[in-house]
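Pasting as-is:
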Amino acid sequence: MRKFRYISLLMICMLLWSPIVVDASNVSIDTKQANEGIVRISYAGLNKKTKVMVEKDSTVYYYDLKNEEDFFPLQFGDGDYTVAVLENVSGTKYKMLTKKSFKVDVEENSVYLKSAQPVTWNKDMKAIKLANSIAQGKKGSEEVIQVIYEYIVSNIEYDYSKLDQLSTDYTPDIDTILQDGKGICYDYSVLFAAMLRSQGIPTKLVKGYRNGINAYHAWNEVYINGRWEIIDTTYDAYLLDNGTSHSIFQDKNNYNKLKEY
């Protein structure tokens, strides 16, 4: 969790340096699905550290582009967005390859049903096939949420040694988490979000702080019965492992949200 603090320092350095736009015909920003809450970035021949910037008003998020094609969320609501692709020059300096500004009228909660960084999934992944299996025959979203929640808190262990091995650009892979049967809070939350989204249940990945946890933390918000409810599978897995009673829905007063995806 503490490693992710270094990302914020990197972002500050990037903002202090004004990148120059260069010709990059092999890089594209596709906004055809913008009203569904996602934008597609393509970079043929990607071979350097590259970032994607998504900006609306005063809110700016940065992501790592690790594949020649990937999707990124437009989760800041309706309005004017600017998306840019930045390539590393040296150290913390980046040059702007391309950027695009556009207006978005996002379909309600659609972004929280999509596969987009850092919650990436597809129907062929083992974790999604598992979600389909354990959700089969369940009546309504509440039962689906409950069985997937129970599976994760009962079968995924917290990996206390993983933090010291992580790179600053780490993004969870849900099938690896499932196979390993362990992970950190980021892993729990991405896995839960992907499995629920695959079942048509809008789910956010949220980062910030929780009372009682002295470190950067990740959890989920799930849309159910017309409102967003907090679910913290990492915390509840810890309580279960220690024989402590727990409830699926958390008190929002215990959480300080900084970012959501």
